[in-house]
């Protein structure tokens, strides 16, 4: 905190993880002796760069680009790129730090990284997006590669942005390195089911957790925040499993549809027309729209899946959810619950699926995309989806087992953090002090 006093989100993520590692450190003093904690919180490399581009009016604009290469003990750095005005070094470091444990937990050979820019894609034309992403990639391309660092999408970075960045990388390198980015379009090396993977994976994880208490998505009322990539496919899978999803949101407000959200409307508004979620009520007048994001948590539900952004559930929203009878929380977004909110859930014995475990389906499927690119093969949707399901249930079982082994049965925050940490710490120990 003394060295980087302004990095609040990063400190929050470090605090959450380090506190939960105490039982593991007590059992493995060798990690402390070898400076694992001091090394693990320090990124191997943090790159910051200027991204100049020209807007449609001919005006030169400058944004800031970031890539943190946090830890490569297990494999090449892997993690998404976020384009959002709130992006700064703290946000990128918190996301990169979370990513190293998440990637370890997946059981796949991927290290952790993250990147992005404070560029705001909202309201920009396709040409502006192309010019910005080309400029961004011109600099980023110096630091990435299929065996070095493999970025993907995150908030504000979807198939369109990945496509432009892939094209620019190929042009700069003069080589077709399909494995340099994941989340690519299906016609040029993308994997079936990658688009769906984070949302589907979160629902698979939560369904496993519910099963252990004799519960299920079937017949449940669900609230899902966000209406982006993760939210849309969480809505889809939860609905397929028999739940009624009654609310979703964007950064302006939320909609409540007591009959259950019409997903094809949301998909068209958000994926094709890039409109605001409030447009939903013009097509479905019985639904209601409310300005502001926090209010979504006052809607009574059995299961809440925060799938928008960090710190979107604070202590008082958590208390409201508990008061209204919520049974389970599944974090689709990264760090959507504040530390105080997590404590409210745990104290009230609410089933709680932490992001690091619950949203690992996206990066897991990205690793499957890398495998397909290496083999120059494309697997079917069913094959990838079946592997995703298996990975999510394994992550759940491993987290449950670690929580039990280290004296916190049922606490998946402790379980996921320790399970991810042990594998990483062992790999770092084996590779010496580097
Ligand atoms: P998208 O950009 O596709 O969607 C983000 C959604 O969240 C949009 O509805 C957006 O609204 C809303 N949102 C963004 N910022 C805010 C904010 N500050 N306040 C309220 N709402 C906000 O992103 P993704 O769905 O890909 O990502 C969502 C979350 O999931 C992020 O935390 C991301 O890190 C995490 N995640 C994503 C993975 C993936 O595979 N995509 C993998 C693992 C985690 P608006 O349109 O108004 O901006």
TrEMBL record:
GO terms for cellular component: cytosol. Residues 191-432 form the Glutamate/phenylalanine/leucine/valine/L-tryptophan dehydrogenase C-terminal domain. The record marks 154 as: Important for catalysis. The keyword Oxidoreductase applies. GO terms for biological process: glutamate biosynthetic process. Substrate binds at residues 78, 99, 102, 153, 366. The active site is at residue 114. CDD domains: NAD_bind_2_Glu_DH. NAD(+) binds at residues 198, 229. GO terms for molecular function: glutamate dehydrogenase (NADP+) activity; nucleotide binding. Pfam families: ELFV_dehydrog, ELFV_dehydrog_N. Keywords: NAD, Nucleotide-binding, Oxidoreductase. Transmembrane segments: none annotated. InterPro entries: Aminoacid_DH-like_N_sf, Glu/Leu/Phe/Val/Trp_DH, Glu/Leu/Phe/Val/Trp_DH_C, Glu/Leu/Phe/Val/Trp_DH_dimer, Glu_DH, Glu_Leu_Phe_Val_DH, NAD(P)-bd_dom_sf, NAD_bind_Glu_DH. Belongs to the Glu/Leu/Phe/Val dehydrogenases family. Homohexamer. This is Glutamate dehydrogenase. It comes from Desulforamulus aeronauticus DSM 10349. The lineage of its organism: Bacteria, Bacillati, Bacillota, Clostridia, Eubacteriales.
